[in-house]
Amino acid sequence: MSNSILISILGILLLAWYLSFSATRLDRCHHRVETSWEHLDALLQRRAALALEIARLSDIDPATEMILTSSAYQSRAANIGDREDAETTLSESLKFLHRNALSGEITIKVAFIDELSSLTDKIRTAIAIHLEAISSVRNLRSKLVFRFFHLAGRAKWPEKYHFEDDEL
User: Fold this and answer.
1) What is 25-165's CATH topology?
2) Rounded average pLDDT over 63-70
3) What are the φ and ψ backbone dihedral angles of 2, each rounded to 5 degrees?
């Protein structure tokens, strides 16, 4: 009798340890999503600031300057719901500007072009990291043990934004 009680207690302790370990793992994954988003957000804010610098310090026509300035300000000021459209618009504006600079139609300092290219590469990497973090959280939360024992608590499902699919 005492052996079966001891085995039962050991089983319960093992299950409690497993659930605690799993919840901690999920919490770390959620934290990774949050930090990857914060890093991505900082890079996107830097891109918007660079777009404003380019608009202010380059010899571009007033219409292009207005479009670039407007899309940069929208990107910086947009709340998370409107951020998708604002980031897509800024990406399109910067691609247009970059294409015209390479063709010689617009004169932009080489330092701006180099910084924009470097920043775009960093953003691509940050997006890949963020999407991987989202994928790992979604995979964990879809497992039966996480759903049955409600290990995610009240944490929101991580969101993937449309602008993360944009071709930068």
Assistant:
1) de novo design (two linked rop proteins) (1.20.1440)
2) 93
3) -70, -30
Question: CA 18: distance to chain centroid?
Answer: 30
Dist CA 157 CA 113 (whole Å): 37
- 27, amino acid identity: D
| Cα 118 to Cα 92: distance, rounded to the nearest angstrom | 17
Residue 61: what are its φ and ψ, rounded to 5°?
Answer: -65, 155
Phi, psi of 162 (to 5 degrees): -60, -35
- Enumerate residues 6+ apart whose C-beta is below 8 A from 34: none
The full set of domain ranges for the chain reads 25-165
Helices 80-103 and 62-77 cross at an angle (nearest 10°) of 150
Q: Please check whether residue 16 is in contact with residue 149, taking contact to mean a CB–CB distance below 8 angstroms.
A: no
How far apart are alpha carbons 77 and 70 in whole angstroms?
11
Tell me the average pLDDT across 104-129: 91
Whether the pTM exceeds 0.70: the reply is: yes
List % helix, strand, coil for the chain (3-state, nearest 5).
Answer: 80, 0, 15
Instruction: Compute CA distances 20 → 17, 40, 70, 92, 117, whole Å.
Output: 5, 30, 49, 46, 44
Mean pLDDT for the stretch of residues 109-113: 89
